[in-house]
């Protein structure tokens, strides 16, 4: 396989231990993660050559974030250095009927203050097959949106496959109007071959809504068919897109979700089995683990979208058992679950 490149922000995650609330915490567990860095770690675990591109402050905390990527096998030599601080987010993990909470502290982070021309994309994209970004990156600042646009234009000119996870984050889009946000995301997504997003992403970014009944995401009854009109509208708006994908998460409680996925290629809609994920350890990064599995699957099985989709859902299902942002599983472990072995028995 040729190389994959992801671009975005890696942050310091600070979380109370276990299921403690912020007001109960006397200490915080420190973990590094972020949407695109999480995808990079997944791909490295599967043996795919991958570089993570970002901007980090040249201080001990920035170095720690870089070392976290390096120890996971992710290429870090294209990272640029500058700025004063690493972004932070605080996570309070929910349980049962109490949902998780996230508080961001990422204003004026190194990547929030990135500017056009700071990254040499021609060098970054040498011998690269795939480029991935998410809707989180352009939400950080106008500068990060401008650099993301530089990246997709450069990747497109080189014939590189481009993917996105639309990832709408209401708490981040503060620097521009709704109309400007839609214009930014529309231009960026127009360069993409593979688009991942749920019904909220489609509506908030592009005003696209399901035709007919609303999508039901509470409880077990999440119908894949309800997403077909969203996928069709997305492909009409973005004719370059060859595949539109969404995950199907049914939230029974904070501790019990159902999990599946669908892929639409313009002709047919493929669907996976539905997993029951009970006693969730950590759901943060679930979508990133799906995207990492999907990119791997589409590269590994270019003529078998169903197998790629099944791999992505199984990989993401396993992520919910792992503490932290990133999915630390192997291809063999994913394939074992795909084959129906969900026993969790000790491997001796």
Automatic annotation (TrEMBL):
InterPro entries: Carb_kinase_PfkB-like, PfkB_dom, Ribokinase-like
GO MF, one annotated term: kinase activity
SUPFAM superfamilies: Ribokinase-like
Presence of the UniProt keyword Transferase in the record: yes
UniProt KW Amino-acid biosynthesis keyword: no
Keywords: Kinase, Transferase
Domain spans labelled Carbohydrate kinase PfkB: 1-326
Family (UniProt): Belongs to the carbohydrate kinase PfkB family.
Protein name in the entry: 2-dehydro-3-deoxygluconokinase
Species annotation: Lutibacter flavus
């Amino acid at each position: 396989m040729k190389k994959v490149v992801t671009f975005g922000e890696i942050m310091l995650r600070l979380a109370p231990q276990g299921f403690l609330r912020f007001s109960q915490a006397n200490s915080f567990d420190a973990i590094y993660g972020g949407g695109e860095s999480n995808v990079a770690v997944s791909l490295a675990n599967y043996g795919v050559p991958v570089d993570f591109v970002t901007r980090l402050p040249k201080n001990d905390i920035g170095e720690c974030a870089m070392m976290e990527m390096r120890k996971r096998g992710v290429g870090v030599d294209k990272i640029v250095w500058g700025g004063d601080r690493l972004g932070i987010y605080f996570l309070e993990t929910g349980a049962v009927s109490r949902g998780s909470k996230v508080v961001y502290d990422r204003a004026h982070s190194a990547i929030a203050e990135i500017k056009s021309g700071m990254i040499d994309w021609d060098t970054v994209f040498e011998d690269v097959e795939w480029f991935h970004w998410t809707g989180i990156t352009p939400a950080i600042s106008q500068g990060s949106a401008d650099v993301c646009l530089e990246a997709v234009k450069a990747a497109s000119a080189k014939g590189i496959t481009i993917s996105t996870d639309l990832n709408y984050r209401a708490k981040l889009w503060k620097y521009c109007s709704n109309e400007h946000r839609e214009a930014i995301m529309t231009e960026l997504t127009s360069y993409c071959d593979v688009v991942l997003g749920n019904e909220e992403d489609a509506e908030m970014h592009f005003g696209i809504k399901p035709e007919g009944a609303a999508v039901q995401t509470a409880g077990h009854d999440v119908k894949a068919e309800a997403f077909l009109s969203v996928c069709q509208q997305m492909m009409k708006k973005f004719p370059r897109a060859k595949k539109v994908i969404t995950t199907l998460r049914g939230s029974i409680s904070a501790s019990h979700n159902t999990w599946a996925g669908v892929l639409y290629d313009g002709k047919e809609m493929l669907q996976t089995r539905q997993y029951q994920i009970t006693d969730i350890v950590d759901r943060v990064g679930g979508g990133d683990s799906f995207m990492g599995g999907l990119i791997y699957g589409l590269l590994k099985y270019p003529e078998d979208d169903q197998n790629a989709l099944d791999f992505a859902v199984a990989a993401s299902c396993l992520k919910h058992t792992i503490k932290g942002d990133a999915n630390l599983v192997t291809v063999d472990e994913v394939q074992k679950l795909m084959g129906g072995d969900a026993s969790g028995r000790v491997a001796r």
